[in-house]
Amino acid sequence: MAERPVYSILLILFLLTTVAAQQIDSPKLVPVPGTESQTQRIREGVALHDRGDYDGAIAKYEAVLKENPDNVLALYELAFSQSAKKEYKKSLETALKGAQYQSEEVTGFYLLIGNNLDELGEPKKAVELYKKALKLKPNDYLLHYNLGVTYNNMSNTEEAKKSLKKAVFSNPNHPSSHVLLATIWYKTHYKTPAIFAAARFLILEPRTNRSVTAFNLLQEIFKGRVKEGKNPGQIDIFVDFQTNKDEGDFGSIDLILGISGAAAMTEKNKSKSEVQKFVDQLEVVLSLMAENEGKGDKSKFTFRYYVPYFVELKKRNYVEPFGYYISQTSDYPGVSEWLDKNANRVNEFLNWSKNYRWPPE
């Protein structure tokens, strides 16, 4: 079996220096469309990639590029498979070539360049790359999102949050931006904003492995403040005084979360199902939010972006279908049965959510 060529240290340094130094200008080269045969081979390569056969996929793309070096789709898929195979240096070189062409894949090439730099231990260069790309495509949510991911990996949560906010402004239906924002907020003591971001994610992506993590985050926020006391009937409520307020003052909601959690543990409510207790807590929190919406600081992102959506959700009496819908990955019994029985209400809620007008940045 022939060995693959090894990149020299000088070539690697050259690639990294080129990316850092180059000004990403508008692409100048014009791609050459593929023939029917070339397009078919690219499809076959994609199928091989999806099965995890990256070598097979790469061979297909390289054969196409040997015939047509200006086939941008083949360049993109080649860079994608090389990155998936962890050949980040090769993928970087291929993506740099592809980014010079005027094509629909140009954003994908920028993302691959940034991701490869990140994987090569060059996050600062990745940040520079994303910023330059955003000057060309300022409203591209994927560029904002990937910039946020890189900042978060660098432990720069403030800049990560800024980028993720721009991502959800550009595309309110991008689940990954919401869930990463929720995770960052939760870890940095923004509990109520984390509720809104995690809930929005679960509306968009209710039944995946990531949904389990997001729902567990919600459960931790809703249940983490209340514990049974040492004495019979005693319930201890803990208030997190570390909660930050630069996203707005949600102190009253933080307090009501503890009270509603305690209420769920009383004898009066012990007969209720776990999912109904969860819905009751959502009802209490969103009712309080609706009552105090006018007092919120609309200059703060959470009050401007998330709060109006959830307040309208409450006013339209969608809390129950909303609560059951986002509980699909929970271990709460009766969720799927309720959703089947109330399919019309659930669809009405989802149609409203789909057509909701999110605010501009």
Number of strands: 2
Helix content: 55-70%
Number of helices: 18
Cα-based radius of gyration, to the nearest Å: 25 Å
Q: Outline, from the CA principal axes?
A: elongated
Mean pLDDT: 86
Task: Describe the fold and architecture.
- The chain has 361 residues and is an all-alpha fold.
- Helix content is 66%, strand content 2%.
- It has helices at 9-21, 36-50, 54-67, 72-84, 88-98, 106-119, 123-136, 141-153, 157-170, 175-187, 191-204, 209-223, 251-264, 274-291, 301-315, 319-325, 335-341, 343-355, and strands at residues 226-228, 235-237.
- The protein has a two-stranded antiparallel sheet with strand order 1-2.
- Helix 4 packs antiparallel against helix 5 and helix 9 (157-170) runs antiparallel to helix 10.
- The radius of gyration is 25 Å and the shape is elongated.
- The chain starts with 8 loop residues before the first helix and ends in a 6-residue tail after the last helix.
- The model is unreliable at 1-16 (pLDDT under 50).
Describe the secondary structure blueprint for this structure:
Elements: H1 9-21, H2 36-50, H3 54-67, H4 72-84, H5 88-98, H6 106-119, H7 123-136, H8 141-153, H9 157-170, H10 175-187, H11 191-204, H12 209-223, E1 226-228, E2 235-237, H13 251-264, H14 274-291, H15 301-315, H16 319-325, H17 335-341, H18 343-355
Antiparallel strand pairs: 1-2
Helix pairs in contact: 2-3, 2-4, 3-4, 4-5, 4-6, 5-6, 6-7, 6-8, 7-8, 8-9, 8-10, 9-10, 10-11, 10-12, 11-12, 11-15, 13-14, 14-15, 14-16
